[in-house]
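A sample follows:
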Amino acid sequence: MNTQTLQNNLIENKSVDYVPDSERHGKSHSLFTLWFCTNIAPLAIVTGAIATETFHLNVISALTAIIAGHLFGGIFLALTSAQGPKVGIPQMVQSRAQFGRYGSLLVISFTTVIYLGFFISNISLSGKVINNVIPVVPVYAATIIGAIAATFIGMVGYHFIHKINKVGAWVMGAALITGLVLMLIQPLPGDFWQRGSFSAAGWFGTFCIGAVWQISFSPYTSDYSRYLPADVGIARPFFATYLGACGGTILAFVFGMMAVSIAPASDAMMSVRHATGWLGPILMVFFLVNIICHNSMNLYGVVLSLITAMQTFRPGWTPGASVRIVFSTLILVGGVIVALAASENFISFFINLILALISVLIPWIVINLIDFYYINQQHYDIPSIFSADGGQYGLLNGRALMVYFVGIIVQIPFVENAFFSGPYAKLIPGVDISWIISLIVTCIAYPLLHSRQRCFYRKNLQSKA
């Protein structure tokens, strides 16, 4: 009994299995602190600077575009997060209900690549920040240290990640607000308010980056809400996630945008140090801790995705903490090797990765939300999801996969990223609108191919009532 209690307190003993009611706990507000702290990160600050540095918007235009983009994208993020208490399983396991047991492997594969990209990018970033804070530590050694720290947190799991972010939300929030105050009370550059101008393309480009930022977290949101009691409903986890994710990211984006506007430099983080004065070195330390904590979530996500993929072929397998530790160690080693070999221009790589991979996330999230909230009325048959034959969801859902591929294909003519430019990519110069085309097409196609019905699980619940 004491050993089991110790394990539950220190290391999460679950991986991708269902969380029964007896193990549900916590409050919805923990989702606010998790997503608020997670999004106050150096990458968010650097990305926010794009509004004025790349799109050359003035401060007011940049501010409105940043806020609008995150408020829009945050809706999708929060809706996926609110599914966790209802289903009690990780987000990728839940995809079996939409695509079938084997059909979900396609989405899981794409998501795993995204997690790995985030993990490796943040490994590289943490190494540079550690070296910046403690110059005597070489970048390669700092990269390894940052990766090991993030991996340790991810190994401990769900509960530890939540606890760290509860503290971090207050610390990071207070630090950035103080930094903004320090920026604004000093004499501003004479052309501060006049620098840059409004442009529809620049505004919409900034809006898209904000929306895409929020949507990119959607594949693992319910991983962090599945332990909440099922009776918390939809509204409370939705608003806790929405306010936390939008609030934290808007604060970070605006912080970066203001820093480069007040103290222009060759690097956005250098602008932050110059613009915040005495607080700058302290912020660098806070950012370092934040990167490591944030990256533990990327590790946790990729581990759950890989275990989900393997468990698809071994229905009777219920992996626990030891399996997560082994997978985490393997990803740590592989991630460090890649990060050390490709650490240059990591910011450019990160931005290009998000914009390129959003093409596979958009149709997935639309199918996920319509299927859960509209077609199945917020209920899934959990035994079927874990059944070897897929239960009522089957092994392959051809209609869902067809819509998913259509949602990807329709983007190709409009794609504008570092890897490919479609024939209609210049409809709005400098802005990738392909994800919006996919959003509209998938929203129309999926309901048309699926008749609205009550799911089997809901009928069972009603019959027991």
Remarks:
- Residues 1-8, 452-465 have pLDDT under 50 and may be disordered.
